[in-house]
Amino acid sequence: MRAIAVGQILPTLVAAVTITACACCCCAKAQLPSDVRSNHWAATAVQQTVKLGIIPLQSDHQFHGEAHVTRTEAVNALAALARQLLAGSWQVQKSEPVPEKVAATMQQDAWKNKQVTRYELSSVLSRFGNYFAHAVTRPKPGSTDVGRSAIPPKGVSPGVPTTHPAYTALKFLTDNRMIHADSPLLHADTTFVKASELSLGLAEMASGLTDKLTELGLDADGNTPDNSFHSKKPGSAGGKQ
Fold first, then answer.
1. What is the pLDDT, as a whole number, of residue 107?
2. CB-count burial class (<10 Å; 0-12, 13-18, 19+) for 147
């Protein structure tokens, strides 16, 4: 169940960042949007996510970090990050651990319904991208057992019309099994995304990414450990003829 382990860290990551700013205190040395001060707690994350096109600036060329994020915006950002991690083009930075006193907020429920701001989205996606890029070893040339896990869903379709601003992002996520049929993000709209929804979206995206980028591992009969590892195929050694 290789993808589940990645998903287990995500609620803590999202809760920590959306409840307190001290989870990412650092200064950005590169150019920032004019409305983000260099010593802001999310400055480095904003610089990284804006530079890589994960979170675009608003029409006035400012970041507006305190603005809440819609489900449509969240879906577009998740897909943009997933594309770069899948392609290996994410410009990884040092991973910073979430302090234990911040992670302890997971024991509370208040974080789940908190509406995510653009500062918080930037910080969460930056952290996730850096964690994932450092932790996951890409498949070796010729690997044949990637993308075969039974965990990510199959047959999910975007819940919006082709003209919707999040359709392309949702099509990418569904095609790559990075979003589930019951996800509130599947029907992207102008509703402000909650921390619990973002956490779930990240976990589902991580499951699909992990499936694409790691070898699942097969037994002697070609069975996968999360699907048919303990059953013998007809005609195989020990199987029914």
1. 72
2. middle
